[in-house]
Q: What sequence folds into this?
């Protein structure tokens, strides 16, 4: 029994090592880094299957209860695969746009390029890009399943969240030191963009902000697991509990959270900072509504300290005023993202149902880009819009149901589970998911492998929080 329990321990630590590695090489948003991720995920999955074939490991309850999600993910991957299959000529005629006469302002070469692409024998306008998209999608699905399979105990949940806290803290410290010292380097390369803003080992400050949002959620969840949830009868006992907290090892996590908030502020990311504090407030309110009769005062005091201390004290020392100023000075005339959205609406009209193919935005958008949009846009700066453009209503519906059901699972864990570990995990998952979903309205964090993979981990943690140990509880109730 003990041998079976520890058979996949090496795989779990390999999983943690991969999770720690992902943000280092520019958020893994380069071809070599993506291939490392793909190969590592496939290797870990293969090794787990070998252990399962040898009856050394079992399928955890969280994985068993996630079967509806497995169906959704299988359908999504199958759908992306169909974008690469040759279509009958009659289908091509039906799927071609009705007219391109209203694109007279578009260069004639771009018209011809679009006509040739859209009358091709594939749903995808760029099969090479879609094949790459499919490869990454398979890796994310495997990473989601590895989380369900390997994170199967309270101690492993704590180690996972602690790994994220350590990784986020180091990213925040490194990014902050680069800005404060004037030695602005990314991943062994001197920065040429976002000078004066923390980027860590990412290229874009917004992507570091997205990563820190989720790591902060992990740290808050870890603290919630360690709080004394028992009622205090008087102020003396409450004060004693507070002193014990300040003198305990938990204060190290609290300090790590402060460092991450500093790093988040120095990114000067408008939506990154907004998404963090909005998700903190929203999740705190949901905690009060869902906690029922169980005491929630320690958690609420923790959240209040995070908001007040970090925003008004730590933030004032490290430039939160610059973030506020950026938000106040934001004008539609200074931004080109709204023009990208405008052009993308025409894009969407022609690929509403099936999309132009996974990963094809950078290839297809220039066809619809108008003259007032300067520069090169390889992403839509809106994850929802980009998924709609590339995968159509079909793809967005599958991903939307998958994500919404996971958020619901995290909320149910807060409401139904009695274990502080499970409820803390539910809090971390809820806050992390809400933060990145808000941030995705104006950025493309989910197109960056490090952040997309971590997003999948938080989706899996929702189901782990709700169902970990569910099978054992059923067994105990049936024998009692």
A:
């Amino acid at each position: 029994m003990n041998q079976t329990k520890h058979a996949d321990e090496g795989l779990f630590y390999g999983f943690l090592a991969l999770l720690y590695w992902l943000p280092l090489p520019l958020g893994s948003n380069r071809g070599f880094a993506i291939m490392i991720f793909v190969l590592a995920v496939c290797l870990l999955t293969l090794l787990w299957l070998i252990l399962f074939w040898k009856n050394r490991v079992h399928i955890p309850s969280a994985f068993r209860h996630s079967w509806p999600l497995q169906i959704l993910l299988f359908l999504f991957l199958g759908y992306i695969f169909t974008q690469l299959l040759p279509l009958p000529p009659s289908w091509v005629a039906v799927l071609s746009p009705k007219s391109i006469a209203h694109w007279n302002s578009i260069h004639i070469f771009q018209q011809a390029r679009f006509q040739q692409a859209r009358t091709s024998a594939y749903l995808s306008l760029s099969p090479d890009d879609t094949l790459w998209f499919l490869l990454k999608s398979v890796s994310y699905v495997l990473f989601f399943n590895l989380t369900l399979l390997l994170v199967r105990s309270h101690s492993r949940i704590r180690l996972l969240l602690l790994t994220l806290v350590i990784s986020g803290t180091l990213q925040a410290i490194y990014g902050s030191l680069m800005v404060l010292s004037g030695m602005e380097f990314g991943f062994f390369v001197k920065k040429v963009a976002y000078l004066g803003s923390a980027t860590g080992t990412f290229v874009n400050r917004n992507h570091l902000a997205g990563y820190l949002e989720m790591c902060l959620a992990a740290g808050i969840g870890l603290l919630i697991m360690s709080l004394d949830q028992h009622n205090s009868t008087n102020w003396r006992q409450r004060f004693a509990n507070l002193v014990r907290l300040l003198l305990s090892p938990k204060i190290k996590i609290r300090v790590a959270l402060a460092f991450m908030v500093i790093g988040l502020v120095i990114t000067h990311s408008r939506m990154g900072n907004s998404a963090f504090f909005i998700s903190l407030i929203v999740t705190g309110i949901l905690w009060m509504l869902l906690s029922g009769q169980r005491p929630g005062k320690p958690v609420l005091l923790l959240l209040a300290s995070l908001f007040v201390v970090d925003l008004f004290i730590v933030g004032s020392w490290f430039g939160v005023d610059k973030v506020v100023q950026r938000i106040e000075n934001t004008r539609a005339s200074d931004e080109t993202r709204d023009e990208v959205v405008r052009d993308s609406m025409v894009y969407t009209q022609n690929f509403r149902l099936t999309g132009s193919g996974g990963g094809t935005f950078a290839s297809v958008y220039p066809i619809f880009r108008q003259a007032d949009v300067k520069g090169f846009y390889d992403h839509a700066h809106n994850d929802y819009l980009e998924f709609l453009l590339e995968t159509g209503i079909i793809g967005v519906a599958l991903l939307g149901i998958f994500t919404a059901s996971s958020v619901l699972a995290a909320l149910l864990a807060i409401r139904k589970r009695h274990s502080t570990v499970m409820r803390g995990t539910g809090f971390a998952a809820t806050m992390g998911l809400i933060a990145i979903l808000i941030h995705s309205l104006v950025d493309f964090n989910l197109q960056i492998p490090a952040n997309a993979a971590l997003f999948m981990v938080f989706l899996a943690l929702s189901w782990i929080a709700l169902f970990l140990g569910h099978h054992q509880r059923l067994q105990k109730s049936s024998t009692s």
Summary: Residues 96-114, 472-480 have pLDDT under 50 and may be disordered. The chain has 21 helices and no strands. The radius of gyration is 24 Å. The chain has one domain: 2-82+129-331+381-479.
